[in-house]
Structure prediction request, 221 residues.
Amino acid sequence: MSEQTLIPLAAAQYPVEEMRQRAADFYAEMNRRRTVRTFSDRAVPRDIIEHCVRTAGTAPSGAHLQPWSFVVVQDAAIKRQIREAAEAEEHEFYTRRATQEWLDALAPLGTDEHKPFLETAPYLIAIFVQRYGVTPDGGQIKHYYAHESVGIATGLLIAALHHAGLAALTHTPSPMEFLNTILDRPDNERPFLLLVTGYPAEDAAVPDLQRKPLDAIATFL
Prediction:
């Protein structure tokens, strides 16, 4: 076993009152985050998206194997292919696969099989789970807690996009194997979700939903 190399922890230290304020301010900012389904086609500089993806890459992962791939799509022709494939799957979902209970749960969100945002938004970020790693000679490296790791990274990406001033939508047509074909991904990758991002449309509106209060989501012992 190789010897581990350690470096000093570059951690910030804040007075308690500043910590309290920072925590409250970040909560207030994230509490303004809403899922958006109507996007502007207004261009977003690529370097902003790059920084947000870098933030996602700081997420903790099983054995630090970082089992994620982010495919950032800006090309209009590729976005059209993705929309056509996604809408085909969504048509099957809404007309055949979904139970009435599931459709009733989705009704307050106003969703249906039509997904124009997949072409309107300036960026689609396809997030893939690497089921295993691949060595330069073609060997396989086992990945641990890959889905959990990619889920954490996705959460950081959503927070980073919101912090930068962009809106985002998590889109999960099922199945999503068409993303492997359209984006030419290797056999060790499986689609996790499709993240749509950009500026919200000027007339964007969202459902009047309420988040659960702290005592409904947390227990302190």
In short: The chain has a mean pLDDT of 94. The first strand starts at residue 68 and ends at 73. The beta strands are 68-73, 123-130, 132-134, 140-142, 167-171, 189-198. Residues 170 and 195 are 5 Å apart (CA to CA).
